[in-house]
Amino acid sequence: MSLTKERIEILQKKIFLILNNQDNWNVKKIKFLSNGVVNAVFILEEESRGILIARTPWRLDESVGNLHSNEDVASLYKEATIAKHCFNHGLKVPRVIHLHLSEEINFLVSEYIHGDESTISAADIGHLVSSIHKIPLEGLSIIDQDNRSFYEIVSSRIVERVSAVNKLLSTNLIVPSIKEIEDTLGMTKTDHCLIHLDIRTPNIIRYKGEIKAVIDWDNAFIGDPLMELMRILETRDIDILEFQKGYKNDTILISASQPNSIIYRLDTALMLAILFISYIKDNDKVQFYLQRAYYLSNTLKRSL
């Protein structure tokens, strides 16, 4: 399913009318800005609040009568909750202005932070991630984590993703059971923290080479910081050696057990394979991450 011009116009009109008619705002202008796999992003100008950003899930769920799925609602609530918590603790994030949830449409309005396409150093990204990992957890609850352990979530997700890849590509990828993976992860005791799990330059607002804010907390959890580092390694978007200069915590990598590192990288490889199969059609990357998944799953089985 692709985002059509007609769908953009419908979403734009709904946001405009709800803010002005239901919330008594005075939105002067609203314009489509961009979209990702989940959200469409609009820039708007409100009389007293200035320039703001609104994001709304754009895909429709046919199984629930072409309404937004519960996952989409949870995603916006999660973004708002984490952004508010991080803002209150001094992290560079856009300030949350308004969260609207209804059967008609769901959207989140946040502060607009001006950015450009300038390059930022991997060391600066490392410092940003270190700051995220140091955010106090008191008072923070993540909606899709509930009372499940982080290790249970990761192990279940890996098995589910293997099933999805095998179905989509008619492959025969095999991994250990959920219990085996969970027990292996649990053998290493690490202090859990807030992890973003989608650290890429598109999710970092930058201006003239400086980081202004980090956005998109959809993948975030309270969990093992090693997973953040392994995801960065596996996605290959950031120079990990330069990153470490800013992150300044070599003990996480040095003390990391090999099975745990492999498990976290496998989760990433599977996620990217599905992304490039189902959402961003790129067969070369599908094949690359499929081979990575085979290699990592075989390495994991030998290490257990």
UniProtKB/TrEMBL annotation:
A Pfam family hit: APH
Domain spans labelled Aminoglycoside phosphotransferase: 30-235
Keyword terms of this UniProt record: Transferase
InterPro entries xref list: Aminoglycoside_PTrfase, Kinase-like_dom_sf
GO MF annotations in UniProt: transferase activity
Protein name in UniProt: Phosphotransferase family enzyme
Gene source species: Cytobacillus firmus (Bacillus firmus)
Lineage start: Bacteria, Bacillati, Bacillota, Bacilli, Bacillales
